[in-house]
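> @MW can you paste both from yesterday?
MW: sure, first one:
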Amino acid sequence: MTIDRAREYTVIVNGGSGCFFQPADPEATYILTAKHNIANAGNQITDLTHFQYQNDHWEILTIPFENLETGVNYFPHPNKDIAIVKIQRLAGLDFCFRLDDLDFDRNGFSLLGYPKVRRDEYPDDKPKWYRPDEGISILDTLPGLLRGAHVPGNPSYEELVGQSGGGIVKIDGDKLKLAGIINKIPTQSEQLGRIEFTPVHVFNEIIELHKNQLAPLLPSHLSSFEFLRQKAFELNLDRFQRENLGTVLSFLRLKAKEIVDSDLTPAIIKDKLNKGLLVDENDVDNLSDMQVWQAWLELLTVLNIARNEKCSLENLEEDFDLYRLKYLSTTDDWTEHFHSIQYADYKGLKTGEGKVFVKTSGDTSPSGLLDLPEHMVVDITRDFNFELLKTDSGSHPFKDFKFYHIDYLKKKCIRDNEGSLKGLSEQEDILNALRDEYSKLFG
């Protein structure tokens, strides 16, 4: 994600701006904006324009606002300057995520919008409409409202008019993290003043008032595992391996539908297990990462097969006593991250029986198994901080639990068994063969 590509998430809303967000509704896209952009136009929408990068150039697209009915697709907050416009789902906008923890890092934000002066002065060169102001810092926090610092470069008042309703965002790799929506720019007499904006979580107040019409501000893949099923059980295979194992991987995706059709969703697991989910403690936004939940879908599917028993919300906590999934947002070899693995929260995990599956955003180790030599375990467990350790018994994770990379389940049980799996075509035969392999790990 670059600041220029963030243009795809920025919308002209009447005389102001807005920001696209894909909610937990596969049929809808939201435009988060400032209420006054629509209220000042008599509660009418007269312009919804955005850019999309297609065929190596920016194309100007207009959303058919004539189909938007006030009161049905327009949801203003009753007493705050924010609103949601609900439109039919637009493709390719899946990398904008909520950023709720604004106290953790207050620097490096960007302000996105469409200043009115650029629309008036550049009618034949419309990509210049978009203006990103980078390097903004959040100065202080007030109840329900944040105030942004001066825009770098001290733009004139004219260069700010029209940006209200735009997003306060931070770029993080391929993600655009949305912190809030601009409400008020400085007046002409205070053009060096602060920019007021509402944190994105406040939009939940609108959603709460319209539960039957609005889905939560969660990425779609948190609302159902269905959005991840076709990406599950991916393996880098050559042509001949694909021919031999393609049927097996397709069968696993079919079995993953049992999880999709159960009462388990990423959002429910996230809420139920909360901080027990083993993500990097300093990056809680990883709980929205697709890779975390793709790994969960694979683990739950394998458990279904191994035990011949369907995972459900009812037995989730029981499973959680035996198995954990640790996510590391790194492309490094996972075995290098002893510190993060060692001090994760293993409370409730059964000593001697617990298994931890590690997921990284990079490649796995060659073995997929954290099989430490005994002398190394002794050295590690001799030199650690008791106060940071989080286990029930006070024992050490590397002595009492088994650690695997999540891809070990594919390497050990599928790739390494290519010879015995390649001739299978009947579902029952594939199921029995996989169950034999998975049962060696899970019992």
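MW: second:
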Amino acid sequence: MTEDDRIALGKRIKETREYLGLTQEGVAQALGLPRSAISDIENGKRRMSTGELKRMSSLFKHPISYFLGEEPELAPDVAALARTAEELSRSDREELLRFAKFLEFRTQHDRTHEGSQEK
């Protein structure tokens, strides 16, 4: 892993940690590391072992591939929605998907309608 890769990894970790409202100390305790190690990881100064990355991925409920930049980054609110949807029942997820498709249709309709009014 190059220095640029470590910096990008650290940035994703920090952004995710902050979005989840976790402190470096809290993450360090959960992973059994000193707080300074979390700071160094977030700043790209320290390499992570595979085990550390797996535990952090589990703690943050994000796939390892996200932290490695192998997945497109989701906006924080979209990622939170996806994590919340995972906890729903299948029928509730289906209902959520129907509602999302309704919102998507409405947005497309509104854009089309706005365009025709400007002419």
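> thanks! The radius of gyration is 19 Å.
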